[in-house]
Amino acid sequence: MPPQQGQPHQAMPHQAMPPQQQAASAGMPPASPQMMHVPVVETHKEGGEKALPRIAIHAFCERPDSAGALQATTQDWRMARANLKIYMGGIAAAIEYYKNESTPSLIIFESSLRAPDLFEQLDKLASVCDSGTKVVMMGATNDIRLYRELMDKGLSDYIVPPFQPLSLIRSISELFADPDKPFVGRVVAFFGAKGGVGSSTLAHNIAWGLANGMGQETALVDLDSSWGTTGLDFHFDNVQGLEEALADHERLDETLLDRIMVRHSEKLSILPAAASLGTPAPSSAESYEALVSGVRSLSPLTILDMPHVWTEWSCDMIKRADEIVITATPDLANLRNAKNLVDYLKAARPNDAAPLLIVNKTGVPKTAEIPVKDFAAAIGIQPAVVLPYEPIVYTEASNEGKMLSEISAAAQTFDGIMYLAHRLRTGSFPSPVSRKKGKLKKLAKKQKGGKDDNPEQGKAKSSLFSKMKKRK
Q1: The pTM is what?
Q2: 14-40+48-175 belongs to which CATH class?
């Protein structure tokens, strides 16, 4: 809103995280070579993240490094809909510019001025601001008194250096949050590097473990309308949950979601898929986004069971999740696909933590599978959990509609699942549990000289590239 019309509030000034360095993007205002920014990545945040709405943002900077930090925000998925334009010249340039132009949704200006010169400039800016425009000042010092005076003048926020892209985005996001729906739950997307690697089974069991083992209110959403297995794994007749929710996303609200979601236990709600081939699911990204937004407004933690498809909507769902879990088995096709996924996500999510990797079905008899340490080295991330090949246990659970926790022979495997569930709930892993057969492993343990579980692997060459060469 214009500076003269805002209402004061008592929040403290936003202060960004410690400064980092990153290559400047093409097209940004001139910046000195040494002033660059790299993202500071957070592995866990209370509450979820949402993309900014379709808004126009104009920024008027005094310093090239401030312009560089703002330019870096445009690479973040949260800013995909926002239209940011950056100008140099500070508040004086803004005043001159809006004498002949209408103001956007948000004006950000940088100023090193102090009162009374600053307040004089603010009055001039207010005189050219349209009603409804929000104004944010990037200042030079963390001055509480100045902050309160600026809030009294009607500014929406006052932020101080050091400026870091993610903190800037969050400061902007808070200004456009829906006051009627302030709560946003976290979303974890499970995606298989290849079909049949066990991603859905693990997603279902982790959702169960979070809800019934840790008491975490959890929602499980099966997004595979054709082949979804929630009905089989949780032993209930499939209903048109997903299909009904996607049919008309404009009428989707909390009442409809509450009606079509299945309350499986006190802490676990499920949105199942009918697994029917009769009616193709909608393909619009807007339908899926509306669905997930609706569910996360009700649940503190939502698990997305993603189908193994790469479309506009599935790409958006994965890219915008708070956490991503990739499941892969240690073979060449999974290696290629997992590496492609990790590389894509690192580029598309520069301010987010790397995906979590599950290496599943290790130790298959009579196969020259890729050693876990070579698999991890080629992908570039360490596995969060390594799980063994146990077909009897998984088949029994699937055929009887049970979770692994209900199968006595799967106790050690379920420990691995709960190990990851703890990470998803708290943001950190628990102390690893020592097991006789080593069902739970951190890759760091293996790198200290631990032997592989599969004796067949000892006969194979240790070099991943030797294996690839051998298969030609």
Answers
A1: 0.77
A2: alpha beta
